[in-house]
Records
---
Amino acid sequence: MAVNDRGAPSAPTHEVMMIQESMKVAGFYQGEVDGLAGSLTFAAVRAYKKQNHMPVNNRLTDEFIDHLREHA
């Protein structure tokens, strides 16, 4: 599953909520945990990826989601 670079979500709402919550706990996201992958969510994802030496993009791959489950 992925979200394309234009921000069209194809990740399920519960996974977007998990990403938002993880980004909030890590201090990257200040928005609502609503399951909607918007500009604040993608800005947080890019900042997190940059800090963790991952390719910086808007893609919410299974690998990224698994990383969050293990490390965030």
---
Amino acid sequence: MSGIDESAVFHPLNIAVLTVSDTRDEATDTSGDLLAGRLVEAGHYLAGRAIVKDEIADIGDQLEAWISDPEIDVILSTGGTGFSPRDVTPEAVRPLFLREMDGFSVLFHQVSQKTVGVATLQSRAFAGQSWDTFIFCLPGSTGACRDGWDGILALELDSRHKPCSLAGMIPRLRDVCA
């Protein structure tokens, strides 16, 4: 049966949050705030937080710094996944992947369709793995981040989720979450 095994030990992850936006700053970053708040409320550690412009080089530089940091297990990004000319998150992130997580996009659209209907087609949400770091790229709207966290990530990043969770793929947890 799928769900949280309350009898199992919870293993917190070190998660960084990246906001990709030409217009948001610390005071107006509601999507980054939502993700940071949700992950801390779930018991994980906020390992880093940054806001970068919609520029391939800026996005890549920040991600590469976090990917090379052995203390960061997961990166959540918000913004830059739409179809405007400035939305370049997929173009910046995909070259960093060793593996893409095709199912994340499918599942995100299923969850999102329940809240925004066919407008979910306007998102290029995606995820993958760069070395040992998982990266999830969500749209920039607070609602989309809520859908992504509440409908997918809260469960998939919880080491107690059965039959399995991505926490068991984190090198330091492979033996304890198997």
---
Amino acid sequence: MDVNESKVYVDVTVDFDSDGRMFPRTIKWEDNRIYKIDRVLSMRPSFSRKAGGQGDLYTIKVQGQEKHLYFERNEESFSGSVGRWFMARA
């Protein structure tokens, strides 16, 4: 588990459009349950006050509830990893 116990790194299925924008489609939670993202409501640069970390904040709808999903960019551009997705534990 990450040092910050309120930050949960999650697997996310993502679509990209022709402009390179990311659209998250599903989230795999730490218990291996997969949740379909019903809708992306907004995306903006932000940080997580609760879990810590900075990146892009996606406000999403999952099962009728508004949630926050963050994309934390990797600072090492040549590491083969562009970043990781996380959510704050409720």
---
Amino acid sequence: MRKCVYAGSFDPPTSGHKDIIDKCLKIFDEVVVAVMVNPNKTSYLTSEEREFLLNKLYKSENRIRVVTFSGAAVDLLNKENTPFYVRGVRNTVDFEYENADMFASKKLKEDMITIYIPAEQDNLHISSTLVRSSVKFKKDCSQLIPKEIYEDFLKFTENRDV
């Protein structure tokens, strides 16, 4: 059985994230979607809200398992007993960042295999930062969030400062 880890902040989960996860399902038997918690970063949504949205998005897909994790990605790969680490990339800036991270991580886990999945052209502009900015300025972000979780996302963001 082939299993991968796709980790990120998912703050919030976007249509771009969904596209990468859907592609992982075409390659792997199991996809562990990891909501990473960075204690040095202030998140917009709680880890529980992010996990809820991802679980709802994939409620009918039994090959997806959503977890929350605080720590290094290599530790999560070891815990999940898989070398496959999937990263979505939108542009050369993402690629350079992910590549530098991969080289550092391989020092900690030599058997790690990083798989880069490029974003579709329609998703190149989508980021969680863009979604948060749209909410802040009360702009429509319905095209940036999967329709299955859009209403739940809006409920989470009511009366919340960005």
